[in-house]
Automatic annotation (TrEMBL):
<feature type="signal peptide">
    <location>
        <begin position="1"/>
        <end position="20"/>
    </location>
</feature>
<dbReference type="InterPro" id="IPR038404">
    <property type="entry name" value="TRAP_DctP_sf"/>
</dbReference>
<dbReference type="InterPro" id="IPR018389">
    <property type="entry name" value="DctP_fam"/>
</dbReference>
<protein>
    <submittedName>
        <fullName>TRAP transporter substrate-binding protein</fullName>
    </submittedName>
</protein>
<dbReference type="Pfam" id="PF03480">
    <property type="entry name" value="DctP"/>
</dbReference>
<keyword id="KW-0732">Signal</keyword>
């Protein structure tokens, strides 16, 4: 081999070595690859890679390509994926205190709800629910509203007989109390279900109406602060524990409130985009009076807290602190 070829090969091998990451982390989630939500996660991954000098690389698997939405949390626990972003309520009964955030009227925006949720975790009020993974950050979307194909929703009794996609069992209880038929399904499955008439409507934030193209199928919108959904970005604990201390520090610097709020701002932007999309299509958008729904909301809240108390969980303490944080986070 001549000297030029030897030098070229050595250079290429050197570049290959320099570019190889110590850890290639597989990040699984259910949002589409072309969505702003995915782009928010990508920004986190790129920042992590830069802060680790390329020793950590994040490979993304959006749109349920690695784990299905309901199995995402267990997928990380059992290391099918190394990291996931998922809905706690998709794993029934595992995060009951976290799901207090789903009760009506808990947050006005994603930034507001995220401040409450991440603070509850940081204060140790819900952290015991996550001992089997390494939590990076938690966030919420903005208020979840009612969106239907045909029927206009104005008051609670208008829900009677309607098949409404619900995100979790907490929201299902509220809908069922008014005679609706809650249908459980992950967000990516809602478009064809609306299209085929399998469901009459969805309980969703404006963000989801945009990201999952649901404004194409639902032309009636009822803005009533029905619920706020919680999300977690979390990591396989064994992978995290196996990292050297300097890389653990990089992971920690990309955890907590700062990154939670960055992702929340993405959701608030998508909420605005989803609303504007529906408005420009001349959809019917009704802003409902909270007073007409207050009794329903109080009943749903009391029922859920009582169920958790029966399980010997400190539900009212967590709820009370969440309401305090809701006021202070909004100040």
């Amino acid at each position: 081999m001549n000297k030029l070829a030897t030098l070229t090969l050595a250079t290429l091998l050197g570049l290959s070595t320099a570019q190889a990451a110590d850890y290639n982390l597989r990040f699984s989630h259910f949002w589409p690859a072309n969505s702003g939500v995915h782009q928010g996660f990508e920004a986190w991954g790129k920042s992590l890679e830069a802060a680790s000098d390329g020793r950590i690389k994040v490979d993304f698997y959006p749109a349920q390509t690695l784990t299905k939405a309901p199995q995402s949390y267990d997928g990380v626990k059992h290391r099918i994926a190394d990291i996931t972003a998922t809905v706690q309520g998709y794993t029934a009964n595992r995060f009951p205190l976290t799901q207090i955030m789903e009760l009506p009227g808990m947050a006005d925006t994603a930034v507001h709800g995220t401040c409450v949720l991440q603070s509850l975790y940081d204060e140790g009020l819900i952290s015991s629910e996550y001992q089997d993974t390494q939590v990076l950050y938690l966030f919420t979307h903005g208020p979840g509203y009612l969106h239907t194909r045909d029927k206009v929703i104005e008051k609670p009794e208008d829900l009677a007989g309607l098949k409404i996609r619900r995100p979790t069992t907490v929201v299902a209880q509220l809908l069922e109390s008014q005679g609706a038929q809650p249908v459980g399904m992950p967000a990516p499955e809602t478009y064809p279900s609306l299209q085929r008439g399998v469901i009459d409507g969805v309980a969703m934030p404006w963000e989801a109406m945009k990201v999952f193209r649901l404004n194409e199928q639902a032309g009636q919108h009822a803005e009533i602060n029905l619920y706020t959904l919680s999300f977690v970005v979390t990591m396989n604990k064994q992978v995290y524990n196996g990292m050297p201390e300097d890389l653990k520090a990089v992971i920690q610097s990309h955890s907590g409130m700062e990154w939670a709020q960055k992702q929340a701002k993405v959701f608030d932007g998508l909420d605005r985009a989803g609303y504007e999309e529906a408005a420009s299509a001349n959809h019917h958008i009704g802003t409902l009076q909270q007073s007409a729904w207050q009794a329903v909301f109080e009943q749903a809240t009391e029922q859920y807290l009582a169920e958790l108390e029966a399980r010997k969980l400190p539900a009212r303490d967590v709820y009370s602190r969440a309401r305090e944080l809701s006021a202070s986070c909004n100040a």
